[in-house]
Amino acid sequence: MGELEDRCLDAFPSWLHSLGGDARALADAIADPATEASVRRRAVGALNYLFKSLDLIPDGIEDLGLLDDAFVLRVAVAGLGESGGVVGRLARDAELIREFLEADYPRLEGYVAGLDQLTARGRSVADVVADAGSSASFAQEVRSWADAYAAPSFTRDEKTLVKLRSFLSAKLPG
């Protein structure tokens, strides 16, 4: 096993465990009118993606499906200029995703950039960002999910990384 695989096998389980807290922190940023609009748009798109995917993750691969969500949260805020707090940490984590996915990373990055067109649970990104009431309601829904979230198990094995790469490669648009 190589150094990259070791780093991924160390990081990815912690990302699964922090997914609820990370989502909560992004919800707090969305609800804060002082947060830059670009951060709010990208965070809402990523959290809308999380909500859509919760209903679509097949039984037996919760770890892969939720890691996909953790990846999307990180890629969504990468490059937005935020260096502190949870948003900064998530953005820095995206570098490991870039190394892990190699040639597939631009496909993920492109997909995430288009999430501002996503609607989930009846709310578009534009609706949530433009209206303080929608922002507050959306943020509360995310917090409620985060409170109930329990991380799935993660098998710390190189085969898990192969399955994750395959899962993402098949899922990402060409």
Question: What's this entry about, in short?
Answer:
72% of the residues lie in helices and 2% in strands. The protein is mainly alpha-helical and 174 residues long. It has a two-stranded antiparallel sheet.
Q: What's the arrangement of strands in the largest beta sheet?
A: 1-2
Q: Quick one: overall form?
A: globular
Largest sheet: 2 strands, antiparallel
Strand content: under 5%
User: Gyration radius, to the nearest Å?
Assistant: 15 Å
CA distance, first residue to last residue: 29 Å
User: In terms of structural class, how would the helical and strand content be classed?
Assistant: mainly alpha
Q: How many beta-strand runs?
A: 2
Q: What do you see in this structure?
A:
The protein is 72% helix and 2% strand. It is built from 8 helices and 2 strands, in the order H-H-H-H-H-E-E-H-H-H. It has a two-stranded antiparallel sheet with strand order 1-2. Helix 2 runs antiparallel to helix 3, helix 3 crosses helix 4 (85-101) and helix 3 (62-77) crosses helix 8. The longest helix has 29 residues, at 3-31. It starts with a helix and ends with a helix. The model has no long low-confidence stretch (mean pLDDT 93).
